[in-house]
Amino acid sequence: MMEAIVQLYQKFLSLYDIRILKVTFDIIKILVITFIGIKIGDMLISRFYKLHRKAKIQLPERKIGTLISLTKNILRYVIYFIAAASILKIFNIEMTSILAVAGIGSLAIGFGAQNLVKDVISGFFIIFEDQFSVGDYVTINGISGTVEEIGLRITKIRGFSDGLHIIPNGEIKMVSNLTKDSMMAVVNIGFPLEEDVDKIIDGLQQICDDIKNSRDDLIEGPSILGITDMQDSKLLITLYAKTQPMQKWAVERDIRYRVKKMFDEKNISFPYPRTNIILTNKN
Amino acid sequence: MMEAIVQLYQKFLSLYDIRILKVTFDIIKILVITFIGIKIGDMLISRFYKLHRKAKIQLPERKIGTLISLTKNILRYVIYFIAAASILKIFNIEMTSILAVAGIGSLAIGFGAQNLVKDVISGFFIIFEDQFSVGDYVTINGISGTVEEIGLRITKIRGFSDGLHIIPNGEIKMVSNLTKDSMMAVVNIGFPLEEDVDKIIDGLQQICDDIKNSRDDLIEGPSILGITDMQDSKLLITLYAKTQPMQKWAVERDIRYRVKKMFDEKNISFPYPRTNIILTNKN
Amino acid sequence: MMEAIVQLYQKFLSLYDIRILKVTFDIIKILVITFIGIKIGDMLISRFYKLHRKAKIQLPERKIGTLISLTKNILRYVIYFIAAASILKIFNIEMTSILAVAGIGSLAIGFGAQNLVKDVISGFFIIFEDQFSVGDYVTINGISGTVEEIGLRITKIRGFSDGLHIIPNGEIKMVSNLTKDSMMAVVNIGFPLEEDVDKIIDGLQQICDDIKNSRDDLIEGPSILGITDMQDSKLLITLYAKTQPMQKWAVERDIRYRVKKMFDEKNISFPYPRTNIILTNKN
Amino acid sequence: MMEAIVQLYQKFLSLYDIRILKVTFDIIKILVITFIGIKIGDMLISRFYKLHRKAKIQLPERKIGTLISLTKNILRYVIYFIAAASILKIFNIEMTSILAVAGIGSLAIGFGAQNLVKDVISGFFIIFEDQFSVGDYVTINGISGTVEEIGLRITKIRGFSDGLHIIPNGEIKMVSNLTKDSMMAVVNIGFPLEEDVDKIIDGLQQICDDIKNSRDDLIEGPSILGITDMQDSKLLITLYAKTQPMQKWAVERDIRYRVKKMFDEKNISFPYPRTNIILTNKN
Amino acid sequence: MMEAIVQLYQKFLSLYDIRILKVTFDIIKILVITFIGIKIGDMLISRFYKLHRKAKIQLPERKIGTLISLTKNILRYVIYFIAAASILKIFNIEMTSILAVAGIGSLAIGFGAQNLVKDVISGFFIIFEDQFSVGDYVTINGISGTVEEIGLRITKIRGFSDGLHIIPNGEIKMVSNLTKDSMMAVVNIGFPLEEDVDKIIDGLQQICDDIKNSRDDLIEGPSILGITDMQDSKLLITLYAKTQPMQKWAVERDIRYRVKKMFDEKNISFPYPRTNIILTNKN
Amino acid sequence: MMEAIVQLYQKFLSLYDIRILKVTFDIIKILVITFIGIKIGDMLISRFYKLHRKAKIQLPERKIGTLISLTKNILRYVIYFIAAASILKIFNIEMTSILAVAGIGSLAIGFGAQNLVKDVISGFFIIFEDQFSVGDYVTINGISGTVEEIGLRITKIRGFSDGLHIIPNGEIKMVSNLTKDSMMAVVNIGFPLEEDVDKIIDGLQQICDDIKNSRDDLIEGPSILGITDMQDSKLLITLYAKTQPMQKWAVERDIRYRVKKMFDEKNISFPYPRTNIILTNKN
Amino acid sequence: MMEAIVQLYQKFLSLYDIRILKVTFDIIKILVITFIGIKIGDMLISRFYKLHRKAKIQLPERKIGTLISLTKNILRYVIYFIAAASILKIFNIEMTSILAVAGIGSLAIGFGAQNLVKDVISGFFIIFEDQFSVGDYVTINGISGTVEEIGLRITKIRGFSDGLHIIPNGEIKMVSNLTKDSMMAVVNIGFPLEEDVDKIIDGLQQICDDIKNSRDDLIEGPSILGITDMQDSKLLITLYAKTQPMQKWAVERDIRYRVKKMFDEKNISFPYPRTNIILTNKN
């Protein structure tokens, strides 16, 4: 093995002697071809999907984004793999001798690479089982955001204010997809225990009716679920509504605004925490 | 191995030369057949289960949903597997040469794929042992919702407001099935320590009787369990009732509404947190 | 390997051609036999245990429930395994060819299936070591409930209000069995620091005596353990009693009810949190 | 392999034909022998240890409990193992054919069974290194209680009120043995910052002396450790005493009772949380 | 093997005898060559990238930093590897004999080295997939900071006040890249429930307009998102703005300053926690 | 394999027939020799170390405790191992046949025993690298106490009040050794924000000087570190001192006692939590 | 294998017969040589580095500490390894026979030793990549302190008051190095919401200027970052400064002292938590 390394060393030196220019030229050639290959590939893919739009049998719009990002991703992996093999060829370093050096490390490589395989298998099933598409709003491992790219190895999710999350597919334990067709807006509102519960429910019903009339991004108008919790110093009443995708938050903010107005108009006392004080003076 | 890659490369290039149209056509043909195969398969399965409904020996309704989702799921995996094999065949890339390239990676694949195997084995036993059916309300890994689909590899659970959860079967450590025949409604109500406990129990008994008479989704009418906890500033009294599946929450909300009314009518003071203040003026 | 898949494909197609009816018929035949086999097996098992009850040497009642659930469980696994093998036989797909396809995946299967083996081994020891029986009240991995079924692979536990928990035996790290012969009822009661501790202990002793006389589900009458904790604003005094299985909670509720009464009668002030306020006016 | 299964199937059926009675009889015979073997073994073991008590060279009493539970445990494993092998023999199912079926699963069995091996190895060292004996009070993985049984695979710990904990030995990461010869009673008592610290220490010293005189389960009389913590609104003073095994809690309760009395007698104000309020009226 | 060690021992001693000076000289020679090699390599790399800046086709500025740090990193690993092999050669210790000594340990090495392989594979994909570049602001495993170096095995991140974090690439489970083109500034402001919500929104709108006019590091001017939460004693209103990279915090501080001014000017009461006190005098 | 078991069974029976007495006698003989061997070994080891004390070249006292406990521990393992092998020899059960039975389980044993190997390797390095000695005060995995015994497989740590902790060496992830030559006493003291900080620092300096003069277990007299934290309602000032081993707590208690006295003398108000109350009467 | 053990046993006994003195003498000889070898090696290393200080080309001072600790560490491992091999040689126990005994355990050893390999690999990279040097202040796995020794297997970190932490290198997941050239001092100061923010900022600016003039351990003088958080009852304003290594805390304490003075001088009210109380009398 020592000889193999020495041989590598001599090759390495000889490269620097004469052939260095040729090799550099060859590598640049491959890199340029790779670069052009990707550009052309991307272009062809985009063009293909544009053509598709004129076709009679249409894929759902939602799937096309996923397919474009995926085919480009696969193309890139294939081209890079060929380029890497070609460059190694130029250096005339036989794979086998590298493997001989690695030899003892093959177990380590096997263990170390398992995450890579896990990522690709998971990625394959995410796409195959259509767990989510580009544009969906999902929650993965406690991170929420809009899916921006689905690849074989990683998924990219754009959060509202916490940047672009890049998650290896193998790390995805559970996906919660919040946008298949509709989203659910839910607002929990606290009321003091001493208020008249029927007056409050009447007021909330009025709000539900108003919202149903004034908004057009609702699929099923807001309804009152009832007293969903009774705590030490307040009642929780829950309103819910089925909305268009991504409209959940706007509806929730609208409900909150109107509830705040109702507190003012109907003179309902605010649900501040209450405490019963028993005084013992000790002067 | 280097030659294998170069061969791949040349094949790859040659594909782009002439045969590219034929190959594309072949692939599309397979995809179309696959697509049609699935559609027909799904139709046949649905029709079969419709036919079954006229049969004399009936499977329980609850199992049919599970069986439909499962047979479709298996059909899909089989057809896709055949399609993938056929497409690889078109490219004339022998599996064996790929495996030769993989070679060193077989250990990695073995480790990486273990999750896939784990998922399928777990999925098989979930179905085989009838842990839950489509339509059941379950809690899995802290996520609650209605089972929407049981597959060999994943289970889909629809939450009330947090979207569709997609859980790989191998990640399911413990299943809590809340709807086998009945659900249990439980409401804990706090009362101030200084109130008359017998008056409260009388009032709660009255509520139990009223609910038993007015609702028809109860299997075993609400009962008082007694003082289930005695905290620093309140007693906890628990009511419980066995209800029809999915009626648990409606019953609980009903109980809470009536208890709130009882507080008002019977003039029971609210269980606000109490504090005993000892004052020391320091002017 | 490619040929094996193509062969599978052709077989698959040929099945749809002519033999499809025969195959379907065969499968249904096997399913029916399986179904009947299980019914008869279940019946035989039940009958056997009924017969046993007339026998002279009696197994303890508590073990019979476990044995019935277990033998039915094993029977089922055996019959299903034979049925599955028979169906595969009909399709004439030799196991060996499947294994050849699997081939590379055998490592993955080995890793993936380890949980299954772990479950069965754990299950075997749970039964063998008599860790718990059907009907016992146990706590496993933070879940409490009554054991409803002990199988080779899973254990089913019925919670009071959180449904039926299905736990793979391999996930059971520690079992806490609360009902072997007796249960321990324990109530911690808080008293304000400024109260007379002897008066309180007298009152609690009175309660202990009353309960001992009035209840018949006690094995060792309630006793006072003494001041088990002294916190910033209260003393904790603990009562405990050994009760019949499953009577723990009833006894605890009874104690709490009587203690609340004692607070009222003896005019003991309630253990509300106390705070010493030092006032600094700043007008 | 298929033939092996079919063979199994035919054997299975043939068993039901004629030999079923003979087989059943054989099994029952083995079970009875096993049952008797265990009874006799248990008896012999108990008798042996009784004999031992008359011997001149005595093992410490504390070890005998452990040895009895251990030898019975090992006997049981050996007898059951022989019985299981005999029953399999009756069915004439050669182990090897089962292993052939298992074949592919041997890796899975290896992985799955590692917990079993881990348990036995851990159990062996717990006994060999005398980490704890039957009757000791230990804390293992957050669970405290008295050791009731030490086996090769599991350890049983009886908690005060939370039942019998059954812990596989391999899950025992750290053992805290609280009773080797003595236990340490420790009570932390809070005093308000504004009290005279010397007066308090005098009072506590008085309590220490009283306890030393009145109790006989102390090895080293209670002492004052000093101000072990100074918090925002109180001082913590710690008393400690070395007691006989299992007397720790009784001594602690005694100390608490006497400290409460001291608060009353010496007119020390209670360590209620204190807050300094700065008032800003806004009328 | 014993002989191999003894041989090593004798060699070791002989080294100290005569050849020690020569060996030391050889090692120093190699170290000096290595040192010079790295210096020259670093210089060549820097020069190459400087040359590149005059080239017509420009790589994006953002990528050049990453490429420089990466090529230097790879160069260093290659040179050190050759140097280490050469030094071992001097000692004339054949690799094979070392491996023979290791022998039994090869499994251990395989397992132990898997992290190294995992790190390099992860590092390769971080660079290949362009997850982040030198200069980006990222969050990795709960640590936030500016990327200072991306290597094959480790990534260095400079935190604002908590020093330089060095993370092995294999430990990177999820990357959140906060600076791709823009950052999102988000400020949540609490208002008391009893205030007039429209007056507040007007004031905040005024602030948004002012900021938009006075700052030039904004991509999309600050906007009001609405009432994003309604808590027991306050409303939360959220302002957000898309800013230039790294300007997020300056914009947020500016918004906070102006909101504080608005509280003063518009006489809005501060969102102190509110509590409703019910007094019971007990004199 | 079946025959091997049957053979075992017959041997087992035959043992009970005639040779049982001889075997029992042989085993007892071995046990007695083992017992005596350990006693003599322990005695020789103790004597050797006593002899050592008269030797001229002395090992540090601190190491001798560790060496005694270690050599006794190794002796014990060696003797037990030989005894176990001899007993197995008596039963004439060849190891190889046991291994044949184990056969399939060798993988399981390999996995299961890895913890044992890990423990011994870790133990070896703890001793070899002198991480701690018998008598040191250490913190391991959140448990603090004085090291009582260091063995090859386990370490025993005596806590102040929580008994004797027995930790397998392989579970030791990080050791914090608090007594190498000295310990550091640290006391954080809170002062109200409104007090005069210079007056406080003067008082604390006085305390530091007093302690330096009155105690002789200090290596570096107590010093004031300054304002180490500024919280909402108090300043934290930290005193620290380097003390003799195990004197840390005594010094800290002394400092606390004197600080409490200073509060009284200098009339500094106590650092009770402060709250600014804004009152809104609503009568 | 049995014979091997018996052989071991006989050898063991024979050792005790005659050769015991010779063997003991040989071992002591080796131990003494080892001891002297280490002493001389340590001396040579120290001398070499002293010589180096007179050399023209100087290594940075910071690296020398690391190199000394490292070379001593490697020397020690090498010498101990040779000594251990020599002692085994004396006993004439061939390694191979030990390995034969181990045999079945080789898998266990492989798994058990992986941590050791992991530690050495990690240690190698920590040194190679210059993650930290002796004397740096680092945070590793939540433990902060000054690096005292970097070894191949373990790293020693001296905490301020929590002793010497000994961390196996393989347990180091992320290193945060706080002292490369400079440290960052950061102080967050809370101010009541109702105070004039401009007056506060002026005061803080004054403090920044004063500190810049009076201290010489600052690299970049303290600056005001602005309002970094706005909480319910206070504003947070942050000051920061770049300081000499290890001067971070002194600067922070200085800032806090001056801010406290500013509160007094400028009559700014303290940031006590504020609460808005709404009173409801119930007499």
TrEMBL record, chains A, B, C, D, E, F, G:
Major subcellular site: membrane
GO CC terms, sorted: plasma membrane
Intracellular or extracellular location(s): Cell membrane
Sequence intervals crossing the membrane: 27-49, 70-91, 97-117
Keyword terms: Cell membrane, Membrane, Transmembrane, Transmembrane helix
A GO MF label: mechanosensitive monoatomic ion channel activity
Domain Mechanosensitive ion channel transmembrane helices 2/3: 73-114
Domain Mechanosensitive ion channel MscS C-terminal, chain residue ranges per copy: 186-270
Domain Mechanosensitive ion channel MscS: 115-180
Family matches, as InterPro entries: LSM_dom_sf (IPR010920), MS_channel_1st (IPR049142), MS_channel_C (IPR049278), MscS_beta-dom_sf (IPR023408), MscS_channel_2nd (IPR006685), MscS_channel_C_sf (IPR011066), MscS_channel_TM-2 (IPR011014), YbiO_bact (IPR045276)
Membrane topology (UniProt): Multi-pass membrane protein
Cited Pfam families: MS_channel_1st, MS_channel_2nd, MS_channel_3rd
Family of this protein: Belongs to the MscS (TC 1.A.23) family.
NCBIfam families referenced in this protein's UniProt entry, alphabetically: MscSThanab (NF047601)
Protein name per Swiss-Prot or TrEMBL: Small conductance mechanosensitive channel
